[in-house]
């Protein structure tokens, strides 16, 4: 049986995660932003996803130059092709997961 302290902990984690991530979107829908600021905001998801992708494609040993992670880079190729043709995030993610799973299984 789950203790009440555990439930309180889960509720607290939910609130701490939900408030800064979801609540700003609710307020932003009701606000009007200048055109330049909206243009800036339109590029944020692309920049964040690119930063996450590059972080996973490169490993940086201490005091050395970055090294390319070959399996992850190979898995990005089919995901990129699916992304170019479909522009569907779910298909891109599924393709990437299947590609990295196959690469790790066979290599």
TrEMBL record:
InterPro entries, alphabetized: Brnchd-chn_aa_trnsp_AzlD
Annotated keywords: Membrane, Transmembrane, Transmembrane helix
Source organism superkingdom: Bacteria
Entry keyword Transmembrane: yes
Encoding gene per record: azlD
Name of the featured protein: Branched-chain amino acid ABC transporter
A Pfam family the protein falls into: AzlD
Segments traversing the membrane: 6-27, 39-58, 89-106
